Amino acid sequence: MADVSLRRDDRGVSTALGYVLNIGVAAILVTMLLFSAGSLVETQRDRAVETELRVVGDRVAADLAAADTLARASDGGSVRYAVEAPPRVAGVAYDVRVNESGNDTVVLDADRSDVTVTVEFQTETPVENATVSGGDFAVGYDGDQLEVEDA
User: Fold this and answer.
1) Is 108 within 8 Å of 116 (Cβ atoms)?
2) Cα 96 vs. chain centroid, distance in angstroms?
3) Cα distance between residue 8 and residue 26, in whole Å
4) What transmembrane ranges does the database entry give (predicted)?
5) N or C, which terminus of the chain has less Cβ within 10 Å?
6) Full-model pTM
7) Tens digit of each residue's pLDDT (9 = 90 or more) over 41-89
8) Where are the domains of the chain?
9) What sign for the dihedral angle of Cα 141, 146, 147, 149?
């Protein structure tokens, strides 16, 4: 009779080990894919925020110039010019800082993003520095300077 003792048998180990290694490599690849897609979406969102802030900044600069024209034509009277702006851009709130450092610029700063856009404006009437939240606001003139205030 043949010896029927239990011998060491490693024939099935390579199949199981290969399966585990394949699952591990697939998990690593899927994780890398998810991280890459997440950073791509974040980059696209930042670009969208920057583009929309630039459009809003250009509109604010044009509205400041229009308010300046009205103020100069008012012969010392008072002017209130309403500016319509979206309260959020690409789903993100933002702040509008006008003439913050006295250099005739509008700075738009997104809250949940590190995106900041600076737009220059030109007026003959001095503009008081101010900060307002995104959304509608007004530009007023009381005889000596333009003032930006919440609507």
Assistant:
1) yes
2) 13
3) 31
4) 16-37
5) N
6) 0.73
7) 788 888 999 999 999 999 999 999 999 999 999 887 889 999 999 999 9
8) 13-150
9) positive
| Cβ–Cβ under 8 Å, residues 96 and 131 | yes
Radius of gyration of the chain (CA): 31
The C-alpha atoms of residue 118 and residue 97 are separated, in whole angstroms, by: 9
Q: What angle do CA 45, 50, 51 make, to 5 degrees?
A: 100
Q: How far apart are CA 103 and CA 124, in angstroms?
A: 13
Token match 């099935």: residue? 12
Query: b or e along 100-132 (b: 16 or more beta carbons within 10 Å of the residue's beta carbon)?
Result: eeeeebbbbbbeebebebebebebebebeebeb
Kindly state the tokens that stand for 60.
């604010």
Compute the distance between CA of residue 26 and CA of residue 114 in angstroms, rounded to an integer. 34
Q: How far apart are CA 61 and CA 140, in angstroms?
A: 14
pLDDT digits 0-9 by tens, 107-134: 999 988 889 999 999 999 999 999 999 9
